[in-house]
């Protein structure tokens, strides 16, 4: 079996946590990614310390602030604007309704919709 780098394992953990429909336990991550339990615990602790993942109240691993910020920054990059516009145009033609993409933003406890 080829040796897998720690960087690859960390990225696989972030990816699995980000795609999961529910918080994943370290054991679930260990089994899903075929990473030994001691290693998964060490890598998760490093990711928590750096803000890439967070442990929820039930002990599940969820995306942290740095992953959420990264996803927003990627979403807002101009290079993907044309792709989003093409998708919206196809959707408008298909459903014959006005369409737009929005994201919510929390500011001082209030929630705003940015369009």
How would you sum up this structure in a few lines?
The protein has helices at 6-19, 26-33, 37-50, 65-76, 81-95; strands at 53-55, 61-63, 103-107, 110-114. With 115 residues, it is α+β, with helices and mostly antiparallel strands. The relative contact order is 0.10.
What is the strand tally?
4
Q: How are the strands of the largest sheet arranged? A: 1-2
What percent strand? 5-15%
Largest beta-sheet characterization? 2 strands, antiparallel
CATH top level label of the largest domain:
Mainly Alpha
Defining key terms:
115 residues, alpha+beta, Arc Repressor Mutant, subunit A, 2 domains, two-stranded antiparallel sheet, two-stranded antiparallel ribbon, 55% helix, elongated
Protein described:
This protein has helices at 6-19, 26-33, 37-50, 65-76, 81-95; strands at 53-55, 61-63, 103-107, 110-114. With 115 residues, the protein is an alpha+beta fold. The protein folds into 2 domains: 6-64, Winged helix-like DNA-binding domain superfamily/Winged helix DNA-binding domain (Arc Repressor Mutant, subunit A, Orthogonal Bundle), CATH 1.10.10; 77-114, no CATH class. A two-stranded antiparallel sheet has the order 1-2. Strands 3-4 form a two-stranded antiparallel ribbon. A hairpin with a 2-residue loop joins strand 3 (103-107) and strand 4 (110-114). It is elongated and about 55 Å long. The model has no long low-confidence stretch (mean pLDDT 85).
């Amino acid at each position: 079996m080829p040796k897998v780098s720690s960087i690859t394992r960390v990225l696989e953990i972030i990816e699995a946590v980000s795609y999961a429909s529910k918080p994943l336990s370290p054991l679930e991550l260990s089994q899903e990614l075929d990473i030994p339990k001691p290693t998964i615990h060490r890598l998760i602790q490093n990711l928590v310390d750096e803000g890439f993942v967070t442990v929820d109240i039930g002990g599940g691993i969820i995306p942290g602030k740095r992953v959420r910020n990264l996803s927003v920054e990627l979403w807002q990059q101009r290079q993907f604007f044309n792709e989003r516009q093409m998708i919206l145009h196809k959707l408008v033609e298909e459903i014959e309704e006005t369409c737009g993409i929005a994201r919510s933003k929390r500011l001082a406890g209030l929630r705003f919709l940015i369009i």
